[in-house]
Design goal:
Layout: E1 4-8, H1 12-23, E2 27-31, E3 43-46, E4 49-52, E5 58-59, H2 62-70, H3 75-78, E6 81-83, E7 88-92, E8 97-100, H4 104-114, H5 121-136, H6 153-162, H7 168-173, H8 179-184, H9 204-213, E9 215-218, H10 223-235, E10 239-241, E11 246-252, E12 255-261, E13 264-267, E14 270-273, H11 277-284, H12 295-299, E15 306-315, E16 324-328, H13 332-342, E17 351-354, E18 368-377, H14 386-401, E19 413-419, H15 421-428, E20 460-462, H16 473-491
Parallel strand pairs: 1-2, 1-14, 2-10, 7-16, 14-20
Antiparallel strand pairs: 3-4, 5-9, 6-9, 7-8, 11-12, 12-13, 15-18, 15-19, 16-17, 17-18
Helix pairs in contact: 1-2, 1-10, 1-16, 2-16, 5-9
């Protein structure tokens, strides 16, 4: 009889894990609280408008392509997608703009328009980070169960590239003299919910990945990745139970043996947690059972920023926009300090707008647009009462859009949804509304992050942004490979 595994959450990490386990012959059931799959990577759809709830950039598809190949499928046939060029447009509050492209020669020209002396530095940046990623990639593909795992040849080889004394911004300042370009290659730290002035220099590999492997738009949005993964998983025999909230993980001694749902108990040989780690561990596992990850210890951890979201279905098109548009506040340092240290709302915030109909006509009715507007803000904090700030900050967001030439949007809005950090916490079960999970400081990486084979209990495994390697779709998919391999080893099965 095949072993039975329960997966809590149908996010991208849980779906990838389900595919790999099912291919290996495991009996897999996914329990999802929401009425749809995807978690933070799910779909908002109304009146012909489509929006990704969360991620809109799809980077480095190679990892997911390898997972699809392992289960006998081709990612690009199962999930049609387009490589974007330009990848995005950066508009600087300090003046100027940059149309980012993965065409190296064109990118040198674009950089030189802002700062002629910095153009040639782009090649040096790419060459160095190509080697850095080659050295560090193996560290992202294996578990780190304890400090002894740091003493390995693969990690020793990457030590010269880690530079723990150096921030991401300081690393880029060694390549580019123009402050705008320094920001252009460090804003990607927001994928981790961190300031580039605090983020470790290691993560220069994020912007490198964009330029080396491109940014992709799956037709229908990033949510189509999750929806198609769910379809493939079910074709492999996975059972997906929607509208099924897990109320508690059940234990026999120190071993996870199943879950309690509103519909009753379900037993299993192993439990995989794909839900937001901090929220799940504090709500689904009794505090008295936990040692390293008690409620008090979780509360002391460092968490990422959150996001204030507007999903706008609008009459008319905005062809002056690129597919992805990023506005960098004139006083970027102040904006970040207000988010991360002061925990207050900025009056001139940086923001991001996706205008997907530039690439994908399925995202809105003909002649209309589905604009996705994101403002990085503090995670839940007593300084900000979203019941009072929700409407006011919507006004701030709409005024900011004028800086990208969108001046008459209010009267043309036909559909609107607002999501605040309070909504991320209460409706999507994200701890403190920290949409990018635990922060990625050196004190919360590798063996110091909650482990893939969860260290507190037997038979319990983690996938997603809260475990190793971290946040962002590519590494979440890597976490699925790591955790599923460990689980199969423990069950005595092979992929």
């Amino acid at each position: 009889m095949s072993k039975r595994v329960l997966i809590i959450g149908a996010g991208p990490g849980g779906l990838a894990t389900a595919m790999l386990l099912a291919k290996a012959g495991v009996d897999v059931t996914i329990l999802e609280k929401q009425p749809r799959v995807g978690g933070r990577t799910s779909l908002i759809e109304a009146d012909g408008y489509k929006f990704d709830l969360g991620p809109t950039f799809f980077l480095y598809p190679q990892i997911l392509q390898e997972i699809f190949k392992e289960v006998g499928r081709d990612l690009f046939k199962e999930v049609p997608m387009t490589r974007l060029d330009p990848q995005y447009r950066l508009t600087f509050g300090a003046g100027g703009e940059l149309n980012a492209t993965s065409d190296l020669e064109r990118m040198v020209v674009e950089i030189s328009k802002l700062s002629p002396a910095d153009g040639p530095q782009f090649r040096k940046f790419m060459d160095y980070n190509r080697v850095k990623l080659e050295k560090f990639a193996p560290c992202l593909q294996v578990p780190f169960p304890g400090w002894k795992s740091l003493i390995s040849l693969r990690l020793l080889m990457v030590l010269p590239f880690l530079k723990p004394w150096k921030s991401l911004h300081a690393e880029l300042a060694s390549y580019f003299s123009d402050p705008r370009l320094q920001l252009a290659f460090t804003f990607q730290s927001k994928y981790l919910g961190m300031s580039p002035f605090q983020c470790p220099s290691l993560f220069s590999i994020l912007s490198f990945l964009e330029y080396e492997h491109g940014i992709w738009h799956p037709t229908g949005g990033c949510n189509s990745i999750s929806r198609n993964m769910a379809r493939v998983a079910q074709e492999l025999g996975v059972k997906i139970q929607l509208n099924t909230a897990v109320e508690e993980i059940l234990f026999k001694g120190r071993r996870a043996v199943g879950v309690q749902t509103a519909q009753g108990e379900q037993s299993a040989d192993a439990v995989v947690v794909n839900a937001d780690f901090a929220n799940a561990i504090t709500k689904l596992v009794p505090n008295n059972l936990r040692r390293r990850w008690s409620n008090a210890k979780v509360a002391k951890k460092s968490f990422s920023c959150s996001t204030f979201m507007l999903y706008l279905g609008v009459d008319g098109r905005f062809d002056q926009l690129a597919h992805h548009n990023i506005y960098v506040a004139k006083d970027y340092r102040r904006n970040l300090d207000e988010i991360e240290r002061q925990h207050v709302l900025s009056e001139d915030p940086s923001f991001y707008v996706e205008n997907p109909v530039r690439t994908d006509a399925t995202m809105a009715p003909p002649g209309h647009s589905s604009l996705y507007v994101l403002l990085p803000v503090t995670h839940q904090h007593p300084n900000v009462d979203w019941a009072k700030e929700r409407a006011r900050y919507r006004g701030v967001a709409l005024r900011q859009l004028e800086k990208l030439g969108i001046t008459d949007i209010e009267k043309r809005i036909r559909f609107e949804r607002v999501v605040t950090p309070a909504d991320w916490e209460s409706k999507v079960d994200v701890y403190r509304g920290a949409t990018f999970n635990l922060a990625h400081s050196f004190a919360q990486m590798l063996h110091l992050r909650p482990q893939n084979r969860f260290e507190e209990f037997d038979g319990m495994y983690l996938v997603g942004g809260g475990t190793h390697p971290g946040s962002g779709l590519p590494v979440i998919f890597e976490s699925a490979r790591i955790s599923s391999k460990l689980l199969l080893e423990d069950l005595g099965q092979t992929a």
